[in-house]
Prior knowledge:
This protein has a 6-stranded mixed beta sheet with strand order 1-3-2-6-8-7, sandwiched between helices. A two-stranded antiparallel sheet has the order 4-5. A hairpin with a 2-residue loop joins strand 4 and strand 5 (107-110). It has a single domain, classed as Uracil-DNA glycosylase-like domain (Uracil-DNA Glycosylase, subunit E), CATH 3.40.470.10. By secondary structure, the protein is of the alpha/beta class. It is built from 8 helices and 8 strands. Helix content is 42%, strand content 15%. The model has no long low-confidence stretch (mean pLDDT 94).
Amino acid sequence: MARRSAADFVPADADDLEALREAAARCRGCDLYRAATQTVFGEGDPRARIMLIGEKPGDSEDREGHPFVGPAGRELARGLEAAAIDPRHVYVTNVVKHFKFVQRGKRRIHQKPTAGEVQACLPWLDHELEVVRPDVMVLLGATAAQALLGKAFRITAQRGERVDVEGRPSAIATWHPSAILRAKEHEDRERMRAELAADLEVAAQLSARLHRRAG
């Protein structure tokens, strides 16, 4: 049996974000759509020089249909503010467009997407990159980083480093905001917040250099 993929649902002539968003709402490229409330596509500046890429939607995002609107979104907004990046000028999305979870009573506990689910969904992200054409990708968390930089990539060792990706924009990987929220110790949360802001600053500076060079 042929492996399913989002590639089967991407319109051949899709050259704008709205067309991609409408097509993604009908995606059946993997089984995650069955339990999720809806597809959560990327949003933001269609000409953003920085694209922020997370793992997948969370519970709040799944219910509301927008990326990074829950607690992790508030943490990300805090990091952008600390890095002096205007949130109106970034594009925010996820590698996987459907919420993956396990039901425990009334709670929906998030689960990490499998490698197969990530690969099945990547065509949407690649088309977002093609339309937006950012200077820099900021990869939030290990799943996003490993999806685009390879399984050997480690956030703990390579966070904040520029990585050039063949066929895609340069990348900076950093903490996912939800990882900051999960940290048990106050000191760890504050350290990770400072590191996230610092990495976002690195991405902004890299974007500015690349933009000047291209101009």
